[in-house]
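In pairs, describe these two lines:
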Amino acid sequence: MPPRSSKRTSRAGRLADVRLSSDLNLDGQNPLRAQPARGAWGPLGVPSTRWKKFQRILVPVVTVAIATGLFFLGRMFYLILTGQ
């Protein structure tokens, strides 16, 4: 087993290093294929905050609607097959 480093950095020390950095390259070491395309005002093809808020409401509503539709479709087939 390799020996552990005697240098221990605290979380506060690491946060202080981050706060002092003004590097705005948020992609870091990510490969180019993993980075979104860049436009004049930021990344292209990334959903806006407004759209993400709308999706948080839309997804549960659509999920409940699909589940309700499947329930009534199954009920209809059940009633047809049982002759009621």
